Amino acid sequence: MGQLVLVTGGSGFIAGHCILRLLERGYRVRTTVRSLQREPGVRAVLRDAGMAADASLEFVAADLTDDTGWSAALADVSAVLHVASPVAPGHVENEDDLIGPAREGTLRVLRAARDARVTRVVLTSAFHAVAWGHPHGTHRFTEDDWTILDGPGVDAYAKSKTLAERAAWDFAAIDESLELTTMLPVAVMGPVLGNSISGSNQIIRSMLDGDMPGLPDLYIPIVDVRDVAAAHVLALETPEAVGQRFLLSDGPPLSMRQIGAIVREHLGSAAASVPTFTLPHAVVRLGARFSPQLRAIAPDLGHARLSSHAKAGRVLGWEPRPAQDAIVAAAHSLVAKNLVRNRDNVRRM
Question: Global pTM?
Fold first, then answer.
């Protein structure tokens, strides 16, 4: 406690919750932003989420695509949570826009840590680095699995997370002083910070907005962002976590229909636009001929990727809350922050 920890990408969803968790645990925190002009806004968002006005939080300007600023970011730091990475599941026009910054940014942070003689690094990877490209079936994915890059349904985001994590482990194999741990969360939902909506929380907003004429037959494994942050800090504090991957999930994946039902049950009239109808596979596949977004999800229709968080429980003592809590917290915060575009049916919560 009282140690200085660097969290990369402080304006991000997971990073913001990691900062809050570290401060609660008594750590001093430094975080990176691409420009110091963002510092007042990030501070305001974190204070709104409960951070004390006198919290020990400082900012440094550093970008994953440039070496500038990383030496200052790592000065006097005892450990790093490397959370920052481009997030864009689904279709992207140019894969290199994701893969390059993710992989090279990770290596840039690790080199800076090595040069500053900071050995402890916890890296945020993703379930996308575990479970994509495999044949559909009943296999329960664990930390021993890796995404097959040339397998079916592997998008640019899955490639970026897999290649970035592989590069980190290759770096750690060469630099034996590096104490690396990687975290592999499934779809992360939970309380929104500020006005920024993460990729998985977008599912909830799209439902509340009435953007979906019906729900595709997809199954989403969910974990609460507050539990993801707690797992990162536990990994930092647990010696047995060094050299390990940890899959962060909660129980079986939920269908889009189940997610919609949870939102309707807990938000009442604010959820009046949430669809109840499940789109037939044929309709989605027909639309996929014309829509890159539908084309990205079509291979996973009707398929549930199973996962196990047993290792995180066994080694870290990590106990996630029910996925329903993450869904409800995300929905309530979206409405409370007026981030739902279809306001005709939204009441004050």
Answer: 0.94
